[in-house]
Structure formats: C-alpha cells, structure tokens
Design goal:
Layout: H1 5-8, H2 12-19, E1 23-26, E2 29-39, E3 66-71, E4 74-82, E5 85-96, H3 105-112, E6 129-132, E7 141-144, E8 158-161, E9 177-179, E10 186-187, E11 200-201
Antiparallel strand pairs: 1-2, 1-6, 2-5, 2-8, 3-4, 4-5, 7-8, 7-9, 10-11
C-alpha cells in the first residue's frame, strides 16, 4: 500500500523508526529501507538549523516532501516531516531491478538514479518515487550516534534494522541500545459525510 500524507505527519524520530522496513519505489526499482538518521529542531547537524535557504527550502514543505542535496560529489535524499525536520535514508536492501550497492546515502542515490531534480518531489502523489508498506516485520531497531556529522554529535538519532547485512556500518558508531519496532500507525479513512470508517492497521502487527 502506498503511504499517504497522514503517515509522514508525525514526530520526526517516530517517523524515522517507522520508515525502517518500508519499500522505496523509484520507477521499476524497489528496495527496502534498513537505515535512517533523524534531523530535528535545535540540532546543529540539521541543514535547517539556521532557518530556510534556497538549498534547504524543501525541508519546510509539507510532510512527505523529498529533500535532495549534494555533499562532495554525492547526492543524499531525505524524507521531510516539515518545519525544517527530515529523515535521511542511509541504506536499503535491494528487492527488484537494483544491481548496485545501496549501503550508504550516496550509493543509494546513485544506484536509484536520484539527483537534485528529485528535490521537492511529493512522495504522496509522484509517479517518479513513492514509499509502500508491504507488511514487512523485523525484530529490533538498533540505535546509535549519527555518521559523519560535526554538530550535535552525541545525539542518538541513527536507527537501523538490527542484524541487517545491508546497513552502511554495523559497529561504528557503536550501538547504544536495541528497541522493539514501533507500533504501526492506524489510518482512519472517512466516508463522504466525514464519519470515520473502520480502523485498520497500516500493516500486520508482530
């Protein structure tokens, strides 16, 4: 099932953990997100720490916007929560029509053909890229410091699927704790008269 605006409109750390296990679709390519980093308010490593610029404008778009930037010679992509907060997708497991490595944000973008032309794309309606939930369940979320940041270096805002062979780094920075996967959110669709229909979880519960 394709993820809608309601999925992205939540606390950024919660969103980061919920993105783990979701399927990233770019055309006919499919991969499963296994590693992310959250960038939040009052976070010196956040590109939006000092406010909006032409470069980071997409971080202030609606939840579900894609923010793509270049660092050195590589592109990196982020799922925007809104208000200058976003989640960096660091690594993914290849599922379909992907032959190159996806362990690292630069490799991930290169393998999927993501560049700055994707910046500002709306994941909720775009036909170029979107996210899906196929009901995948995993055992534990590993939590550590982020990789390669020079500000707010001790914040534990990197999350990855524990035991996944597809993450960019398994033991550095060291894992600080293991957590149960977050409960999947419940989407309440509404009838034409505005009354809620039957509530169903986004995917099966473990």
């Amino acid at each position: 099932m394709r993820l809608g605006r309601w999925f992205y409109d939540r606390d950024t750390v919660e969103l980061a953990k919920l993105l783990l296990g979701k399927v990233l679709a770019v055309g006919d390519k499919r991969c499963r997100i296994v590693e992310v980093e959250a960038y939040v308010k009052h976070d010196k490593a956040n590109h939006a720490y000092r406010g909006m610029t032409n470069r980071n404008r997409s971080m202030f778009g609606p939840p579900g916007t894609l923010y793509v930037y270049m660092v050195h010679t590589h592109y990196c992509m982020n799922v925007v929560r809104g208000g200058g907060e976003a989640v960096l997708i660091r690594a993914a497991e290849p599922l379909a029509n992907v032959e190159d490595r996806l362990d690292g944000p630069g490799r991930l973008c290169r393998s999927l053909g993501v560049d700055r032309s994707f910046d500002g794309l709306d994941l909720c309606v775009s036909e170029r890229m979107w996210l899906e939930d196929d009901g995948y369940v995993y055992d534990r979320v590993a939590v550590s410091r982020r990789i390669g940041v020079t500000g707010s270096v001790n914040r534990l805002l990197r999350f990855f699927v524990a035991g996944s062979p597809w993450v960019s780094r398994k033991n550095s920075p060291p894992v600080r704790r293991l957590e149960k996967p977050p409960k999947q959110p419940i989407h309440v669709s509404r009838r034409a008269d505005g009354q809620p229909q039957q509530r169903e979880p986004l995917s099966p519960q473990p």
